[in-house]
Structures
1.
Amino acid sequence: MGLAEILEQHKGAIVNKWFQTVIETYPQDTARFLKNRKDQFANPVGSTTLRGLQGLFDSLFTDLNREQIIGYLDPIIRIRAVQDFTPSQALAFIFELKTILRKRINQALDDKNARRACDQLESRIDIIGLIAFDIYMQCRETIFSLRTNDEHRKTLQTFKRAKLIVEDSDVQPNLKSVT
Amino acid sequence: MSDLLTPEEMKANLDYHTPHSGWMNTPVNIRKGMYCYASNPKSVETLGLPNARKWNPMEEDWELPENWQQILHEGFKERLERFRSIKVFMDICVRCGACSDKCHFFIGTGDPKNMPVLRAELLRSVYRNDFTRFGKIFGKLAGARPMTANVLKEWWYYLFQCTECRRCSLFCPYGIDTAEITIFGRELLNLLGLNIDWIATPVANCYRTGNHLGIQPHAYKDMLDFFVDDIEDITGLRLEPNFNKKGADILFITPSGDVFADPGTYTCMGYMMLFHYLKEKYGLDVTWSTYASEGGNFGFFTAHEVMKRLNAKMYAEAKRLGVKWILGGECGHMWRVIHQYMDTMNGPADFLEEPVSPITGTKFENAKSTKMVHITEFTADLIKHNKLELDPSRNDHLKVTFHDSCNPSRGMGMFEEPRYVIKNVCNHFYDMPRNTIKEQTFCCGSGSGLNAGEDMELRMMGGLPRANAVRHVHEKHGVNILANVCAVDRAALPALMEYWVPEVDVTGTTELVANALLMPGEKKRTTDLRSEPLPGMEEEADE
């Protein structure tokens, strides 16, 4: 049996294990809720995470389309980028997949074949990890810009109220051309 | 050789698992992005509240008064005697957990101390220790713990991670109102001067100048005059709003956010256009007040006495002007204050008339005692009686969904009126999933004075369940605008959408009404109230 078949056969178990690893980054009580509450509107974090992981796992065996990976990865990172995680904690789950896969593959394939299969998959996981950095930074930049925009708006409003800013003026400056 | 860690060494240093200690032994970790700045001592002084001082939540020493534990204990005791509800809420919870996963802050942050049951337990544990025999004898075994500086910090951190939205209360089999517990807890914190500035300064402004932003009467009028100019550009009509007019039929009060912050300003223009229409068609005389220039009441998030003071000015102004009744704008918590507190706080307002629409004759039974009617109910009634000429096709470029603001929905039961209004002024309306709307609505995540800039992470997490449902209707139906009836929503949701669903904009409901309103004598409209071209209409104008 080849690698693809083995992984396809164990897909459910692998994704579940991966999901379990992600939700274990939350406190115990929370992890239980994230796992057991199935309604996507009552439990957006758990359902978004599971959906994204399923998609990412499938995309490992395609031609790694960046937009497609972002589609699965962005919703998960967007949540973790504002939650109580350091950047490494927020993104570590991607690399945890390597350990999970390695265990599965080592059980099913002989050493040489397993090594080669792991190498291939791990490179692909690294690519996903690199894309995750981009998404994470973009999320943090959005947060910072929301914060600065808020300050900017408040300052501008204060100036406007104090009549320190004239937006439309009927008086045109009488400037002479320098040519 | 490089002294960099190998990947294995680096990984060994990372622990993604939280300690499995009990909640009492898990110390509070105050994190940036999760809290609002401490109150400005000047604002605390203006209100005559105790222990005004400079302090910083990130510092070890909060500069508490020496006898702070005694102040809290006595404050707790006094309120247990004064508010029977608090006494019951402290005793009755059986920790069934029905509320635990209903809070938007728990869902978004994943922090168990944001489970409403546990947030309340922060206070209950001290209650047991100080006021119950069982707690005094068995201590921790009975879920009791003494008040320490760390416990106080935990109170402060988590009581300002609750928007008092009351979604949890909906699921409580005992009907415990967790918002009341937060209100009570914040009132205790205010005894020690531990408010946040996003609340304290607006309250001080409102107390002094009549609105949260501290806008003086002439500047308030100036802003509405700007809108008169803008409306003239859009409709060709020159409006003449009344200010402080004695003997007007109705006094109109709205949150000052509508007057000063986009996109609320467009809703404000909508009110003005609606009143002009009603004056031209039916002779209705509505006045604005530059003194009662705030519908919102951040006193509600500070202490009962402060809420009462701010609420009183609205009724004092109604009395001074001699109006028949008050019409209220699109606000959230203003309506909870009116609907659930005003009557026993400053009421009965027996100098006003029981509200009856002079145009349709409808008697607003629910406002019989408070004498204050919600603009959306008022408008829905006008539409129901065919009193407004409308062209919903002007809103055809909009695919609308409606966010039920927590207070008008859970606080006063207003579910159908805004939907009825929107469906009559827009042709494309799509509700979000049932367990995210009406009485089960998810909060914007920024209510109860938390819509500051410095707590952006908290706001984004608190608003996640709401944004998640918006994303669903955006992907399913192409929804591109999120309507609401609350000024805090209009201030907070644009940032939330920008982070989670950037394709969706935010609007007040009356803005949609005014876009569709066919005003007598108006020119052909080519733009909406935001001065953005109306698709299709622009072309016709060019021909």
2.
Amino acid sequence: MSATEGDPRRTDPRSFAVRAIMAMRNAVFPMVAILFAMRDEGYGIFLALGVGLLIAAIAAVSNYLAWTRFTYRVGTEDIRVEQGILSRAARSVPYERIQDVSLEQALVPRLFGLVEVKFETGSGGGEDLKLSYLTETEGEALRELVRERREEEAAPDAEKQASEEVIAAADPPAKLLFAMDMNRLIIFSLFQFSLAAVAVVGGLTQQFDFLLPFDIWDLDFWRDELAEQGESIAGLGQQAQFVGAMLGVIALVALGFATGLVRTFLRDWGFLLEKTARGFRRRRGLLTRTDVVMPTHRVQAVKIGTGLLRYRFGWHGLNFVSLAQDAGSSNHVVAPFAKMAEIAPIMAEAGFAMPAPDASWHRASKNYRTDSILLESAISLFATVPVAIFAPLPFVIIPLSLAILAAVANYYSWRFRRHALDARQVISVHGLLSPETQIASRVKLHSVEIAQGPIAQHRGYATVNLGLAGGSFTMHGVPIRHARALRAAVLDSISASDFSQINAAVSGAQV
Amino acid sequence: MQENPDIPAISDDDALTQLHPNHIKVLRIKTIMASLPILIAALILESSAILPPAFIMAPVALLVVLVILRLPLRRHLARGYAISVDRLRVVRGIWMRRDTVVPFSRVQHIDVNQGPIERFYGIATLTLYTAGMHNASVNLPGLGEDLARQMREDIRQHIKRESV
């Protein structure tokens, strides 16, 4: 064991002074408050100073204690930190997992020539190791040391380095994967029918009703208006009334389609997905044109979504789940509206494959179906009791129909719920009336959890949570036997490859 | 589509290692500390004399004592772990049972933490961090101090071996 190599070191002695100074900011507010409250008393200023000194003293003592108990050790294999006055916390970060070392200087430490050294690992919770503070030279030396150790560990890292560099003009020609022409955009916008505009107009009238020449919330105004219009409408005869109503409906529908058209055109105008040397490059947008590059090795999983109606016409959308630190969102649309035949080659470029036609699908447990139907409709059924007591009888229909709706929805959502395993992937399908498919590469998963509530424990099914970087992968109602088999298979794939390899590799092709 | 007969029935509910016996004591002290506010609230209600004497305090005290006696042991028995060559399995929870496996090759960094009570009883919590959003950190409390450190060394050694 060489873990204890390297002496325990403390951070720079001045760092406790820096911390104490920064803690002084906390003393300012109480001091001002006391000064203000005691402005009529002669001793107010002394009290304020006393309190300030006390806070500063407490900060100094606690920071000094914390400083003496904080040690770090630069070993041959990892960096270790131990800290804690009453409790004790020890952290070990292996060099293989350190992706970057950053040096940060805030104003106060800068005056002392100190830096905060941050070791960035890919941990999902964002908890990284920090050393605050070291001298600038020490910080630099540590960064160099970590880089050297890392290079010793992993020589073929150059490939990854290359992929991180900024896109160069001399790149090989990009390969076009997916584009949306005018026809496609128009068809897509038909499915984007939305009455949001009506809601927006409604919301605007509520916000800006003071601008209208009449009081929109005045019922008398509307009654008068209606009576006036009603008379003139009644005078038009039945046929004209019908035509009027039809025109109203047509106007509403037209507005819905127009909203969809405008939205779709604004967002997906000139949609272009290419494969470049650096990864997938997506450009889209009419007024604000966005240009996103996703390195191929960072694609962790894919999602194929669809809609209630567009599914019936064979239209789907493809999303990539990639590492969260890429660019804000970790869920990238790469083909918003495409046929399956167009989606498959894009997935193949990212190292994913469509589920084989002979894939052995496992459905969710029937017990899960029964339980979810019963549970979800029970909530509404219980609500009928107070409604029956306190409201007029016909109102009972509302919770009753909600209960039936919940039961039907749960029954139908079970029909799509299933999962399959192939040699390299985990595939999960779920959805109500239209299926959403999620496909994850087995080697790119980080943990497997089988969770069971009290009912699930007795009824023999479980929720399976797969640890996916940048997204979640959850399967409900998996029979416990299948859940265990799935976990065993996935873990065997994971154990066969290391994290630092999958992160550097171009695709998850190793099993 | 239906039940596949070729799925092996993996029963991995055996072979779990129990946690350190001192873990029960730590859990009990934490339960006592958590129940203090409830006892104080009951005491205040009692002193306001809304109900006849002991009508509030007696049932609350009885319930608290029962919980302090029963819950720590049950929670302790519900927890367990299994460590193999390349993975750690952590099982916990009475009501919501969670059974998590973390392969060592996916561990980002490792913590060994001890609160003041844990330190007094010589036990520690091992925490493994992964890059996944779900289970970004997996806690295994109630290990003997030395065992926790030994496990950290073993896991770190494995990360080292895997990467070369």
